[in-house]
Amino acid sequence: MPVNKPHITESGVYFITFTCYKWLRLFEITNSYDLVYKWFGYLKEKGHYIAGYVIMPNHIHLLIGFMPSGPSINTIVGNGKRFMAYEIVSRLKDAKLNEILAILSAGVDSSDKKRGKHHEVFEQSFDIKACHSFKFVNQKLNYIHCNPVSKKWELVKYAGDYIHSSAGYYESGKPGLFEVFNIADLIQLQWFEKYRVS
Question: What angle do CA 60, 51, 147 make, to 5 degrees?
Answer without folding.
Answer: 40
